[in-house]
Amino acid sequence: MLPVTKFGSLLLSPLTLAILLLAAAALLAWYQRQRWLALLCSTGFVLLYLPATAWFSDALLSPLEARYPSVAIEDLPSADVIVVLGGTTEGASRFDSRGNLNQAGERLIRGLELYRAGKAPIVLLSGGASAPKQPEALYMAQWLQDLGMPPSALIVETDSLTTYDNALYSAGIVQ
User: What is this structure's pTM?
Assistant: First the structure.
């Protein structure tokens, strides 16, 4: 039953429906000899489908990631503060008051690893939220405390709403 449910929800997603409708329109136009309509539909299909695939996004990210390879923690210099930018959580869910970690959650874990390796005595968490939501930095602080980081090692910046704000407000705090 689970595969049917998963497949059914996939078929009903807006992206899948748009792709199927464009493919059907392209086929219909092709068989009725309306070449321009078929070309436009096919182009729309490709523009929707390609960016939705893992291999396409990997092909776009690979050159960028190759320029900035991962560095082993022991090879990193010590610092006064470890800065962890926001964008790591999705906010509270009905299952977890700490907020769900998303694909960028690894930066939070990396900050904890750096702290545990003694690379800096303080971790600055940067991330706000629009009212009435709780600022993301508070969720991140809860995660780190639950993983054993002492509250005395945390500085929380809760005003930033963008990456630019993260950098600007964090720089002010660090200075």
Answer: 0.69
